Amino acid sequence: MLINGQPGDSIDASDRGLAYGDGLYRTLEAHYGQPLLWRWQWQRLAADCASLHLPCPDEALLLAEIAQVAGTLPRAVVKIVLTRGSGQRGYAMPATCTATRIVSATAWGGYPAERAEHGVAVRWCDTRLAIQPLLAGIKHLNRLENVFARSEWHDPAIAEGLMLDMDGTVVEGTMSNLFIVRGGELFTPLLDRCGVSGAMRACVLQLAANLGIPVREVRLQPEDVLAADEAFVCNSLAGIWPLRQLDGRQWLAWPLTRRLQQALLTICCASAIRR
Amino acid sequence: MLINGQPGDSIDASDRGLAYGDGLYRTLEAHYGQPLLWRWQWQRLAADCASLHLPCPDEALLLAEIAQVAGTLPRAVVKIVLTRGSGQRGYAMPATCTATRIVSATAWGGYPAERAEHGVAVRWCDTRLAIQPLLAGIKHLNRLENVFARSEWHDPAIAEGLMLDMDGTVVEGTMSNLFIVRGGELFTPLLDRCGVSGAMRACVLQLAANLGIPVREVRLQPEDVLAADEAFVCNSLAGIWPLRQLDGRQWLAWPLTRRLQQALLTICCASAIRR
Question: Which residues are in coiled coils (chains A, B) (predicted)?
Fold first, then answer.
């Protein structure tokens, strides 16, 4: 783990990341220190820095730090955390901010392959996402809703929980974004009121465009998901997991999802080779 | 500063308090290590622990730690932070949780006395509070809304900003609770959908009861505040600040607020002497 570029494992207890969740993070996969799908990770990181008025670190510096912490690991989870650093007491953003940058890596064997192959069982969460356009899409450090949602079940057969917002609209999974397929088109929830706009979501949107698959960002109702021809959740560590089971509904084939999985595999390999 | 009872100034960078804002805090005033209005602080702390499913620390232990960090300071701000500690990756609350407990003190001269004497100018914030009943009232570590709201103005003549929720209902100040007076009665926003239920708010409710002043928790509209006979904001460090100016409205006398300030002074003195 590197804290502002120095080896370490602790941060100042007065850091605003702890005090207020005043910061953001990203989680990604790296092979021997090479981050997968970096282009989308970086785009989302930079966008979130802008939204939070946080200084964005230099891209080359981040890549060097990822290489440093994960370089010896064949497969690692890398986590980047950026906070507004330590400041005077009080909520106001300091006029000058010395951000805290944490880059860490953990060896990781990946999720069980059958999730991507045979699909996953998911559930509806009772925990609702509050509607807050100001913070919508940002992968910020205010994640208590996700903590409560993910704590609703302990059954390891359930891979993910889907969350609705306060209006009952479907938004995302607790740690993933959601897509559905209907009539050969892709639909994914608009994230203008809440939810996290994940790097893998951005990548899937690009893959769909490359494949000529129409995609629309819309407000989805739970019945839209249940009526879908196919559905999947995705994130940077999981890749794409087809939905096999939800609330009595079963899906057994995912032809369009398979095309996206294949395209993702291709782009990941290209990304790994190119770097 | 004490971290889990040991002198220190840093925490594990993998703490869930940093990762997810998974914890809570309290800020209070102490004189030579004796916390003011501890009864209300403790009640709120214990309630928030229960709401977040966090183990509540022993009261005597906390008091001893406050005495240890602030014992030599005539007047101090004490901050208590409790988090769900470090755990395995992922949002789910760990089955067994070793909480992180941070108790720190800073010498502090108090706010300028004229704020309580002559009242304060406040403003409306544009930043709205999201409606999230699950977290309403809790002084948790997910405070980005407060950070954005408090960053809206830099004019030191404005002491506080008042926040509305997504429905336009008045909830609180960025760092305080709000009360208004109308026809000899006190009204304060219901905090069942968002907002922080402060220790000073609880204390004021008790003081009003002691004085035989009727109080109601209601949904207040901005026009209710502007039409009020008196209004004040309060928190554990500020005490009670009468509103002098808001959005063109001026208040010049605060007879009922003065009675509450007097009662607060009495109870603080009694509390300081008794301990």
Answer: none
* Tally of helices (H runs) and strands (E runs) in chain B: 8, 16
Beta carbons of A20 and B135 less than 8 Å apart = no
CB interface of A with B, residues 191-210, below 8 Å: 194
The per-residue pLDDT for B275 is: 47
Q: Do A147 and B91 lie within an 8 Å CB cutoff?
A: yes
CB A104 to CB B14 under 8 A?
Answer: yes
Q: Catalytic site residue A127? A: no
Does the annotation mark B27 as catalytic?
A: yes
| Side-chain-side CA neighbours of residue B261 (13 Å) | 20
Q: Which of A70, A77, A30, A8 is nearest to B13 (CA)?
A: A8
Please say if the pLDDT value at position A275 is more than 50: no
Name the architecture of domain A113-274.
Answer: Alpha-Beta Barrel (3.20)
Distance CA B19, CA B16 (A): 5
The stretch A199-217 carries a mean pLDDT of 98
A/B interface, count of CB pairs below 8 Å = 158
Q: How far apart are CA B61 and CA B65, in angstroms?
A: 6
pLDDT of residue A100: 97
pLDDT at A271: 67
pLDDT tens for each residue of A28-61: 999 999 999 999 999 999 999 999 999 999 999 9
Q: Enter the DSSP assignment of B196.
A: B
User: Which segments of chain A belong to CATH 3.30.470.10?
Assistant: 2-107
Beta bridge partners of B242: B232
- CA distances B124 to B160, B217, B246, Å, are 9, 20, 8
- Catalytic residue, candidates B29, B65, B83, B139: B139
| pLDDT-derived band at A89, boundaries 50, 70, 90 | confident
What residue of A is the nearest CA neighbor of B3? Answer: A13
State which H helix or E strand residue B177 sits in: strand B177-182
Which residues does residue B140 pair with via DSSP β-bridges, in sequence order? B24
The answer to whether residues A37 and A28 touch, using CB atoms and an 8 Å cutoff, is yes
Query: Which residue spans of chain B are classified as CATH 3.20.10.10?
Result: 113-274
CA gap B233, B119 in Å, rounded: 10
Q: Which of A20, A86, A89, A175 is best to mutate for the B interface (most B CBs within 10 A)?
A: A20
Contact between B172 and B235 (Cβ < 8 Å)? no
CATH fold for domain A2-107:
D-amino Acid Aminotransferase; Chain A, domain 1 (3.30.470)
The DSSP result for B74-140, as a single string, is SSEEEEEEEE--B-SSSSSPPSS---EEEEEEEE---S-HHHHHH-EEEEE-SPPBP--TTTTB--B
What is the pLDDT, as a whole number, of residue A41?
97
Closest-CA residue to B62 (of B49, B44, B80): B80
In the 8-state DSSP scheme, what is residue B73? -
Q: Which helix (H) or strand (E) holds B208?
A: helix B199-211
